[in-house]
Specification:
It is built from 4 helices and 10 strands; from the N terminus they run ααααββββββββββ. It is mainly beta and 164 residues long. It has a single domain, classed as Sandwich (Immunoglobulin-like), CATH 2.60.40. A hairpin with an 8-residue loop joins strand 1 and strand 2. The N and C termini lie far apart (41 Å). The N terminus is likely disordered. Bound molecules: copper (II) ion.
Length: 164
Amino acid sequence: MTRTIPMLLAGGLLLGTVQLPANAVNASAAETPSAETRGLTRIEVSDPWVREAPPGIRLVAAYMVLANPSGRTDRLVSVRSPLAGKIEIHRMIIRNGMMDMDAIPFLTIPAKGEVKLQPGGTHLMIYGLKRELRAGDRLPLELEFEHAGTRLIDAPVRKVMGKH
Ligand SMILES: [Cu+2]
């Protein structure tokens, strides 16, 4: 799996022609009960999406639901994209009475639990987009978990009205 990632990222993904088999990865993991006995976890990624940025802005937030059906806590430790300079995990905090964002080094996904990354809460902050993303585009993301390993997803860009 790890061997194929650089090839995928260097190849069709940049052109947006490869659909990542996110569901296929889930399905094969589900059919391999020995994964859990080896002490590995399985993280299910659902509803990933990226908020469309205003024209000229190369900074976007991404959201998704990370579910951990296994009996062992896991952590999202890093996120990369061939289309981004840097990706941080951000949580919302109150600083001097104002809502602000704070980068955290990892995100814990509890055993038998799930974490929702959503507007107004924890999110992925994507810096230095190499091209503008419009609604309908897709952003490939490589999620690295401490135990579950690396997952490739393909997050659609959505336009969201209001809130600002
Ligand atoms: Cu942020």
